[in-house]
Amino acid sequence: MSQVVFVKTKLLKPIFFLIFLNFICLKAFGQNEDYESIVGKSYGDRHMFLFHNFHTQYKIEVDSAAYFKKVKKLSEVARKANDKELELEAEFLKYIFLSSRNYSKYLPEMNSLLKKVDSEQATQLQARVRQAIGFHYLYEKNNYGEAYIYLNESYPYLQQLSAKELPDKQELLYNIGYINYMIGYDAKALKFLEEAQRLDNNYYSTLECNIINTQGLIYEQSEHFDQAIKSFNQLLKVSSDNKKDIWVRVAKNNIANVLITQKKYDQALTFLNGNPQLNANDSEEIGIVIARKLMLLGKVYNAQEKWIQLSEVTPELEELLKKYNIPLKIRKEIYRLLAVDKQKKENFREAYFYKDSALILATDYFKIKNDQGLKQTLEKERIQELLKEQLKTEHQQRVTLITRVSLIVILLLIITLSIVLFIRQKEKFKKKRLEVEFELSESKAKLADLLGELKSKDREVQAYEDELEQLYQNIDKDEIQINETQKTLEALLSKPIMTENKWLVFKRSFDRVNPGYFEKLQQEIPNISPAEIRFMYLRKLNLTPKEIAYVLGISQGSIRQYKHRIRTKINADSQDKLDKFLDSI
Fold first, then answer.
1. 105, 251, 543, 544: which has the fewest Cβ within 10 Å?
2. 97 to each of 24, 55, 91, 272, how far by Cα in Å?
3. pLDDT mean across residues, the chain
4. Cβ neighbours of residue 542 under 8 Å, at least 6 residues apart?
């Protein structure tokens, strides 16, 4: 993605991941558990009941026995009333709980559930179960292809349902738009996002911000800057109206970034110098947002050559770099600004360090593509926001709640970091393997070029020899023409195909295709000379003595001398033994 979204990617999962968002609803506790009250009703009518009883109660989320006890009770009530759709809903609730708990049978059992849902033609479950499987592939398996298939397959079922029948339809549409955006189908992504934006959502307060922001990022990525600014301004208005300060800052950062891209620096400053004033001590996510704001401010000052103002920003950036795990894309830009600042202060040693670090980070950044772990790391801000809401409702369990949520966040960070490191190493290995394969292919091509030149010269020599033969057989011999042809042939034979420069290129190519051959020659043949090494390299290509002479521009007598010297060095008493020995190397 060309633009950083400071909303943790995990929170963009569909409704089945809302078990982690247990603090959205302030009425979670004390909710009536009269399961008979939802028997025979549509999903639209029972949605909030299920939401309150299974998705927002922290107590049952951390106690699997309590959770499954409630699910079992719901399933028994549904079975007794012969409400097949509610029974399937209860089974789905079980897998919602297991989705991110490394349950090894999750996918086969979910696909089995999908067959039952399709058989019953329970439309809302046909959409939601497909999305749940898709997001499991995306976030647990890192399989974008399967995720894309399942999420897009849910769309025909969404089209059949109104928002009243499917209250979380807006979120499900957004999920499809988001997976299209992640894969790079921007036009399709915009289509789904616009459709989602037309719907109302009354239980997920930041979803509208996610939708508008993603639209802006798509426009910016495709360089439709006017439309991008329009979307980000809309985000600014919505987040301001709803008093979402973190989203206000994200919107202003995004607007400023587009303006900087267009070199409209003065306009960008108006968005970087204004409110809201966020406190970086509140959370790491807010610290990252502030770091991005200061980085953009530094870019403006650098472009305007306002070195004093730049020097006022850089100490804060250095402090934030020490304190937070700043994303790679922002960090490389910060290092560039620090390098400029240090250079202006004539601190050339640190300037060189930051400049070199920026180059390294830039290289690493462009190696990371579709890095799921990195996206997830940048999504924690909404967790912190929802955590604050939950803390207001959990007065009696405040200390326990903070401790448990902190452990979950730390665990997620550890898992995310492990994924990032694994993917990075995998990408490095893959790139190295491709480089080796390319070099090997290139080397083989160069060897083939040499053989092509050899064949060409052989044909040319043969043509001159045939011409001489005809001249000698001619009764009226033309001595002058014979002499000229003879001289041309001798010059051609004495002109080597393998010049010194070509030899260096050839040797590098040969060594790549035949690793270790040079070292083995030195071990097996004592005091082997450079000329003998060239002979052995060409012999390894199965060239005849005549062809080797063409390549080196020497006589075949010289070739015989090479072989004789090598035979002497290895004490071979016959030509056959010499040939067998050389073939064995």
1. 105
2. 17, 9, 10, 42
3. 80
4. none
CA–CA separation, 573 vs 238, rounded Å?
93
d(CA 75, CA 337): 60
The sign of the torsion formed by the CA atoms of 96, 102, 108, 109 equals negative
539 torsion bin: left (phi>0), alpha (psi -120 to 50), beta (else):
alpha
Quickly list DSSP for 309-372: HHHHHHHHHHHHHHHS---HHHHHHHHHHHHHHHHHTT-HHHHHHHHHHHHHHHHHHHH--S-H
Phi first, then psi: give them for residue 166, nearest 5 degrees: -135, 85
Contact 364, 420 (CB under 8 A): no
Say which CATH architecture domain 1-200 belongs to. Answer: Alpha Horseshoe (1.25)
Q: How confident is the model at residue 461 (pLDDT cuts 50, 70, 90)?
A: low
Residue 202: its H or E element: none
User: Residue 435: CB partners within 8 Å, gap ≥ 6?
Assistant: none
Instruction: Please give the Cα distance from 116 to 135 (Å, whole number).
Output: 20
Contact between 552 and 496 under an 8 Å Cβ cutoff? The reply is yes
- Unique residue bearing structure tokens 């307060």: 205
Q: Which residues contact 147 (CB under 8 A, 6 or more apart)?
A: 134, 135, 137, 138, 179
- Provide the whole-model pTM: 0.56
Model pLDDT, residue 195: 95
Q: Kindly state the tokens that stand for 526.
A: 């004592």
Gap between the Cα atoms of 527 and 522, Å rounded: 7
Per-domain boundaries in the chain: 1-200, 431-584
Rounded-to-integer distance, Cα 262 and Cα 510, Å: 50
pLDDT digits (tens, 9 = 90+) for 398-418: 677 788 888 888 888 888 888
Q: pLDDT for 174-229, tens place per residue?
A: 999 998 888 788 899 999 999 999 997 766 778 999 999 999 999 999 999 999 99
Q: Any idea what DSSP says for residue 14?
A: -
Q: What is the DSSP letter of 52?
A: I
Asked if residue 3 has pLDDT above 50, the reply is no
Euclidean distance between CA atoms 513 and 286, whole angstroms: 53
Contact at 8 Å (CB) between 306 and 298? no
Q: How far is residue 19 CA from its own chain's centroid?
A: 28
